[in-house]
Amino acid sequence: METNNEYHISFFKPTTIQAKRNRNLALMLIGFWAIAIFGFQILLRVFEEPTPEPSYITYEKVWTDVKAENASQAELQEFAKSTMAVLGKVMINPEDKAILGNGLNWAVFQLADSVQKVQIEKQVLAFEKLKAEITNIRDESYLKAKAELSLIVSPIINLSDKDVRAKLLPLELSFSQMLVFDAKNKELLPATMKKYLIHNQSFLTDFKLLGFPFHYFYTAVFLLILFVFLCWLYCIRIDKFNKLYNIED
Fold this sequence. Notes:
By secondary structure, this protein is mostly helical. The protein contains ten helices and four strands, in the order H-E-H-H-H-H-H-H-H-E-H-E-E-H. The chain folds into two domains: about 15-50 and about 200-245, no CATH class; about 50-200, no CATH class. It has helices at about 15-45, 55-65, 75-85, 95-110, 115-135, 140-155, 165-170, 185-195, 205, 215-245; strands at about 50, 200, 210, 210-215. The chain is elongated and about 95 Å long.
């Protein structure tokens, strides 16, 4: 029995010259688009270099003594501020937050004198209870307690009241984490600090174009423009093919 394939259409196995040219054009433009996307990512990988934030450099200088629990007051202060540099970031894993929080709270309590320790215990426990009870973060009693706690603890780790970390500090305090720096958290903390304070950089990320970091401009602006241009080019070329082969819509 004879089979009629006249209406069978395959993009990958075209049966007419115009279909072949359409396929080749589409594949060429898709290939160009893929090179523009993945080629840039490959370049980023080739040229990237791990670059630490200043807070990480400070942390590295004091960590050996902090881990051994024989750090000076200045070293504990720098350690506490470096952990706050991570805790202040928006996207942070809850497990990592607990590790950093333990280090911060322990350092704060180590730096406090006997009078301050009693005051901190009282204020932190009261603030934790208040946080659990309020339904609105603009509650006056909550804001007042937060400000009072910041005034007590910020000077202990040498944070000025103008430092944004001073405003975040009360939110990271937990009395249950102050008494002991857990051994497991000590082992995990270096990797956690590296995770958030060391970033891959290169001339592709440092160079700015029209006020934007080049890698951001390329991916967020240029690639969108390129995609629209390729679509436009496809339409123009297909129209020419249709005229060449006398194909009418």
